Amino acid sequence: MKRQGNNQNQPPRIVVIGGGTGLPVILKALHKKNADVTAIVTVADDGGSSGVIRDYINVVPPGDIRNVLVALSDMPQIYKKIFQYRFVSTDQFFSGHAIGNLIIAALSEMNDNGIFYAVQELSKMMNVEGHVFPASNEPLVLNARFSDGTVIAGESEISAAAKTIERAWVSGMNENVPHAVNEVISAIMEADQIVLGPGSLFTSILPNLMISNLGKAVCKTKAEVIYICNIMTQKGETERFSDADHVRVLNKHMGKKFIDTVLVNTETVPKKYMDYQKNGEYLYQVKHDFNGLRKEGCRVISNNFLRLQNHGVFHNGPQVVDELLRLTGRPLSWFDDECN
């Protein structure tokens, strides 16, 4: 039986797993509510500033971790802006790097115990409310096998291949078997609710679940496992996917139907709204297949979760979080009253 709250007088323990730009959207909205939040963040990113830093000093890619820290931080806004500041292209030595990425990389070098514990120190410095846990204490490599039998390593290379992905997995350094530290596993097993996404299916969500002990914990936990389905399909990853296809891929990789509830957006993206030059990785709106979702054994919650901004398509964080909080079994007024 799935758990619906450890104690109705205590804040629910919500673990959000993912990466990319979708994770901070949900965390920012959760941060404003009375919930005990833990973010488990992918460490397989190899693009942009994170990729460059990773290549030079062999550290866990810091970009996703940086954005999550800011989303849950209570430090003054000016400090957040400094932490997020990205050097302009004319600064050749620092070009494209965010100050926060450099700080995380420095702390990981200073801490002999690895990136996980460096992030815990930084969380204290940034007055983070909740917990930010890297999925692994070492950088991981995402691998994919495509329908034509070819295999490619590296998140950026996989996305650029523009082929149908059949299987994804992660590998560690020196052929080590990737694993999550005990704190990550404990957070999952003790949670009241596990939230997957929103985020890229193959490059933000599955890299976490493919860490053996982490994936097993998600399948064994008594917490309700909720998947926030993407609104748009992604080039090189989920082309022509329906919402049921997303869930089917997740269940197939885990070897069981482990997702209890799926949140799907039902609002139509206006024609010609998307700026595809700016958001070239997104293709079409995800199609709905409610019969397919039922076959995957999950409950479906559909609503208008759409937020349109700057000719891009995003999840409406507060609207999604309201649904998540309802699923804890408490009225929404409980969270507002507790915050006052």
UniProtKB/TrEMBL annotation:
<dbReference type="Pfam" id="PF01933">
    <property type="entry name" value="CofD"/>
</dbReference>
<dbReference type="GO" id="GO:0005737">
    <property type="term" value="C:cytoplasm"/>
</dbReference>
<dbReference type="InterPro" id="IPR038136">
    <property type="entry name" value="CofD-like_dom_sf"/>
</dbReference>
<dbReference type="GO" id="GO:0043743">
    <property type="term" value="F:LPPG:FO 2-phospho-L-lactate transferase activity"/>
</dbReference>
<protein>
    <recommendedName>
        <fullName>Putative gluconeogenesis factor</fullName>
    </recommendedName>
</protein>
<comment type="function">
    <text>Required for morphogenesis under gluconeogenic growth conditions.</text>
</comment>
<dbReference type="InterPro" id="IPR002882">
    <property type="entry name" value="CofD"/>
</dbReference>
<dbReference type="GO" id="GO:0008360">
    <property type="term" value="P:regulation of cell shape"/>
</dbReference>
<dbReference type="InterPro" id="IPR010119">
    <property type="entry name" value="Gluconeogen_factor"/>
</dbReference>
<keyword id="KW-0963">Cytoplasm</keyword>
<comment type="similarity">
    <text>Belongs to the gluconeogenesis factor family.</text>
</comment>
